[in-house]
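Example record

The entry below shows one chain as it appears in the dataset: sequence first, then structure tokens.
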Amino acid sequence: LSSKHCWADIYPSDIAARAKVDEYCHWHHSNLRSITKAYFRVFTIPHPLITPDVINLYKKQANTSLKIIENAYLKSSSSGFLLGTDYPTAADFMSYEE
């Protein structure tokens, strides 16, 4: 949709900037879901295989992922946005919603 409607501020038209957004989106999908699993899923979708040990594993993964965001994405950004842009991109919106 961003390409179709020329929303370059959300999904940059510059190939290098777009690659950074794509990289974050792929990383987000594989790493930040543990936050949902650890803190919300257990209450919304109870399952006998989700034991306290499994929940603790998800919490550990969530904390590791949050440290990566702080140290790899936000630390190198003076703007406060994940990719160092002066405006939020699709990566910022994905991060916020999780």
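Notes for this example: The chain has a mean pLDDT of 84. The first helix runs from residue 15 to 31.
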